[in-house]
Known about the structure:
94 residues; two-stranded antiparallel ribbon; 2 strands; 6% strand
Amino acid sequence: MARAQAQIGLDDSWIKDDALLLEKREQAKDAKSAAVKTFTTADDVAKELLKAYDLTTPKRCGRFILEARVAPGHSVEFETQETTRTHIGVADAE
């Protein structure tokens, strides 16, 4: 759940624009969070159970192909550019 922040400062500035669909966005975010949690749990269980099988060569399980792939370690170096990120938070918890 988002941290509630009832007031930004002494004189809050307001935007009134229903076209932003912020409530619909918040509902969709909650639904996505629940779906991701369900998937993550199912994925963790499946991967734990698959440890009992030799997947060095691909195997079929119904419509799925199961395979263990080795990803060798490597060094990564990169630079980032300055960017602006827009944050949308919840001011009050209903």
